[in-house]
Specification:
By secondary structure, the protein is mainly α. Helices cover 51% and strands 8% of the residues. The strands form four sheets. It has a two-stranded antiparallel ribbon.
Amino acid sequence: MAFKTISKSVWTDRILGGAADVAKVAEDVSIDVNRLKAFAFDISTKIPPLPKWDLPVFAEKPNKDTIDLMLLGNTINFQYTDVRTKERYFFEYKGKVWYGAMGMWAALKNAFEQGVPILDGVYLSTLTLEQAGKIFNKDSSMPMLERRVEILNEVGKTLIDKYNGHFYNLVAESGAEIVEDNGTLSAKQGKLFNNGKGLLDKLLADFPSFTDEAYYKGKKVVFSKRAQLGAAMLYEKFLGLGLELFTKSEMQQLTVFVNYELPKVLNGLGIIIYSERLNRKVLNQIPLEYGSNMEVEIRAVTLHAIRMLKEEIEKVNPNSGVTYLHLDYMLWETGRNINSIPHHLCETPAY
C-alpha cells in the first residue's frame, strides 16, 4: 500500500526518522562523522542556487504542457544502467548525446515535438511496447522498458479516471487554480500536503508506481524518491520561469531523493563507509535486491548522513539558507560527473 501523508510534519518526521533508525543499527553502511563535518565546513559558503531545469531536454514555457511533461517524466524517472550489460542509456537530441535521466527527458521532449500525444491519458493508457521503443530506443536500449510501459498505461488510466486525462488537473486540484492565457500560466499556490488533497498526497494515493518503501528488521522505511522529485522538479522549473506553484515552506519539508548518485558521492568522499562485503558487490557491479538489508542501508544511511550534513552546515553558517533541495541537486550533479567509481546497482522502478 502506498504511503499516505497526514501532514507535512508527519511526512518529514516519518521519512527522516525511519532513516535514522536504520543508521543506528546498520551492519554494512556507516558514517564517518569527522569527514562529514569537514565536508560541511568546506561547502558551507558554496551552496548553489536551485536548478531551473532549463537544459534543452526540458520544456521551455510556463504552461500546462510543461506541468504535464515534468510530472510524466518522473513517472518513469528510474534506472538508466542495465544491470546485465552495465550499459548506460543515452539519446541523441539536437546534435548532443544525453545520458541517463537527461536521455529519458530528451526522448520525451523529442516525441512531444514530433507530435506524439504523450501528454494525453488516452494515448498513455494504450501505449504499446512497440510504440515506446520508437520513442525511447532510437540510439540505445532503455532498461526496463516493459515496466515503463506498464507504468505509463497505469498512469494513463488514472489520468482518464480522475484527472480528465492530464496531470495539470491534478495540480489544479491541489489548490493551484491554474489559468492559462495565450500559453502563459498564472496560478494561486497549491499544496503538497493537505490531508489527502495535496500534490504529494495524490501522487502516492492514486499512482501505485510512486510507492518507494521497504521493511528493515521489521520496521517500515519510506523514501518516496520519485514522488518527491516530481514535486520538486515541478516547483523548481516554474520558479525559474517566474511562477511559484507551491510555498517555499512546504518545499522545505521535502527530503533528498535518494537514488544511485547520492550514495556514490558520499562513499567516494569517505562520508559513508561500506563494509568489505558490500564494497565488493558495488565494485564488482553485483546487483542488490530492492528492499534487501544492504540496499535499504545504502539509501537510509545516505539520507541520514545528508540530514547530518544539513545540520552541520547550519551550525557553521546559519545564514546559508541551505535546504534538502539544494543539497540533493549539488550532490546529484556531482555524482553524474564522476565516472571513476561505480554506483550500486539495483533493478527497480523506485529510483
